[in-house]
Design goal:
With 295 residues, this protein is an alpha+beta fold. 69% of the residues lie in helices and 11% in strands. The protein folds into 2 domains: 3-201, Up-down Bundle (Alpha-lytic protease prodomain-like); 208-293, Cation efflux protein, cytoplasmic domain (Alpha-Beta Plaits, 2-Layer Sandwich), CATH 3.30.70. Strands 3-2-1-4 form a 4-stranded mixed beta sheet, with helices on one face. Strand 2 (239-248), helix 8 and strand 3 form a beta-alpha-beta unit. Belongs to the cation diffusion facilitator (CDF) transporter (TC 2.A.4) family. This is Cation diffusion facilitator family transporter.
Length: 295
């Protein structure tokens, strides 16, 4: 089991533990805000299971039907997580709306809030680890799971503040109001995640900073070539695809052109990690006099 799969499996365990803690917090207090927080954790469990399935499937090697591998499966998990975040927000809004018509004072708020704080701390710590490792492994599924957890942390903090404020002031409508406000916040988070994940499925180019770095490496390592044009890039899970045309002098040998390609590929793979580089070599009559010029 590789690192990404171990982290995804750990997410399922953490999500179940946090769900249990939040259910206890709601049972102790009867707070609608804590009930809403627990409902979001049910979604967290489903999202963690989806992430585990996606990471497991994406780790499968290329085969005859999937010659470029299975890495895009992680984007489907990320899209699902974005949708589940939105569903959780809508569930919270529904519970908050119902509680506004009949608010009540939470029971045992101190004990319930203590349990909720422990669950929130666990989510925050695991989310930080997932974000760090997801970036290092370039795993959309792990990054989506991390964002989901951070949305849950924001919700939980708002809920804790709301329940504490109700207990301290006796203003009962603060409980459902703050639950509704945190739901609006995670709606925004879910929308952002959906947009980014769909972008990966639609083969969006890599981010501008990375694209500039790719262009700089191509220019530095292509001594002997004349120019490079028609550069195309995309991410597929943990793999970055780079494709371009390289113009060389018409009298250059195949062996020399191949050496230039090898240098460029080695530099790009050292920068990108998992990468598939495709270079189409062309004679100088095909030059377009734009694109990436050789330093």
């Amino acid at each position: 089991m590789d690192r990404a799969m171990r982290l995804a499996a750990g997410s399922v365990i953490v999500a179940l533990a946090v769900l249990g803690l939040k259910a206890v917090a709601w049972w102790l207090t009867g707070s609608v805000a804590l009930l809403a927080d627990a409902l979001e954790s049910v979604v967290n469990v489903a999202a963690a299971l989806a992430a585990l399935a996606a990471v497991s499937f994406s780790a499968a090697p290329p085969d005859a039907n999937h010659p470029y591998g299975h890495a895009k499966a992680e984007y489907f998990s990320a899209v699902l997580e974005g949708a589940l975040i939105i569903v959780a927000a809508l569930l919270i809004l529904r519970e908050a709306w119902g509680a506004l018509s009949a608010p009540h004072m939470p029971d045992m708020p101190g004990l319930g809030l203590g349990v909720s704080i422990v669950a929130t701390a666990a989510n925050a710590g695991w989310g930080l680890m997932l974000r760090r490792e997801g970036r290092r492994l370039r795993s959309p599924a792990l990054l989506a799971d991390a964002r989901h957890l951070f949305a849950d942390v924001v919700t939980s903090v708002g809920v804790v503040v709301g329940v504490a404020a109700v207990a301290a002031t006796g203003i009962l409508w603060l409980d459902p109001l703050l639950a509704a406000l945190t739901a609006v916040n995670i709606l925004f988070s879910g929308w952002q995640l959906l947009r980014e994940s769909v972008g990966g499925l639609m083969d969006e180019a890599v981010e501008p900073a990375l694209l500039n770095r790719i262009r700089a490496l191509m220019s530095q390592e292509a001594q002997g070539a004349l120019e490079m044009h028609d550069l195309r890039t995309r991410h597929a899970g943990r793999t970055t695809f780079v494709e371009f045309h390289m113009v060389v002098p018409g009298d250059m040998t195949v062996s020399h052109a191949h050496e230039i390609c090898d240098r460029i590929e080695a530099a790009l793979k050292a920068e990108l990690g998992a990468a598939i580089i495709t270079i189409h070599v062309e004679p100088e009559v095909k030059a377009k006099h734009h694109g990436v010029l050789v330093l």
